[in-house]
Write a structure and sequence with these properties.
- By secondary structure, this protein is an alpha/beta fold.
- It has a single domain, classed as 3-Layer(aba) Sandwich (Rossmann fold).
- It contains 10 helices and 8 strands.
- The strands form 3 sheets. It has a 4-stranded parallel sheet with strand order 3-8-7-4, with helices on both faces.
- Helix 5 runs parallel beside helix 8.
- The protein starts with a helix and ends with a strand.
Length: 232
């Protein structure tokens, strides 16, 4: 009775079409199906595989693999999911983070780690303290609360910090992105895990997660997976 009363007083409303939903989240089934879900992608870098190639890795990763071990992406970076990404990141619409986090949690349990051991900890990509104060929250961390609730994987948000205030990656090309992140991250607390996940909202060139992976592996972590909402 209390559950039904709660749903009547605070109904779920789709964040796209604004229709009332009975799905238990602010996303209706029609709009959920219309999202740009990821298809067959490279196991390593998360980019699309060349059609007709019988391999889980792309040619680029076979020749020069990234520093991380695996990348899992929910969507391609295109409308309409971009509305939720931008709304969370720059519009402070934390409800969008919850919706994307719930979708992420479902994929972790049912698809990405089916018959595989889950990572031991999740590390959201840290923001520089100045940017965190300005924004008021870390969007990567906001995406993780539904995942932590469903999987019970601990979130480690204070072991790694961003020590250099870098230019926003979205404003730079691929070469400048790599240079921009040199010595940007530092491990400040021991990480007693061998297998961890880095969480980011959008992975574009992979420069950010590559740089963070490097410092994690230098600190003793052996396996680093990447989770993201979108792979551009």
């Amino acid at each position: 009775m209390l559950k039904k009363l709660e749903q009547w007083l605070f109904p779920f409303i789709c964040c796209f079409c604004e229709a009332y939903t009975t799905s238990g989240q602010d996303l209706c089934s029609a709009c959920k199906m219309a999202l740009p879900w990821s298809g067959d992608r490279c196991f390593k870098c998360g980019l699309y595989l060349t059609p007709g190639i019988d391999s889980i890795d792309c040619e680029s990763c076979r020749e020069l693999p990234p520093k991380f071990d695996r990348l899992c992406a929910l969507f391609s970076y295109q409308p309409p999911i971009t509305k939720l990404i931008m709304g969370l990141k720059f519009g402070k619409k934390l409800a969008y983070g919850r919706v994307m986090g719930e979708l992420l949690a479902d994929q972790v349990a049912s698809r990405w780690y089916q018959n595989l051991e889950l990572p031991e900890a999740i590390i959201p990509v840290p923001l520089h303290i100045d940017r965190l104060r300005k924004r008021g929250f870390n969007q990567a961390l906001e995406l993780l609360w539904p995942v932590q609730k469903q999987t019970e994987i601990p979130i480690v948000f204070d072991a790694c910090v961003r020590i250099r205030k870098t230019t926003a990656q979205s404003q730079l090309d691929k070469t400048r992105r790599k240079r921009n992140l040199k010595s940007a991250f530092q491990i400040v607390k021991p990480i007693p895990f061998e297998h961890v996940v880095i969480m980011d909202d959008v992975v574009t060139t992979g420069s950010t997660v590559n740089a963070l992976t490097q410092v994690l592996k230098e600190s003793g972590v052996t396996t680093v997976d990447i989770w993201c909402i979108c792979r551009a």
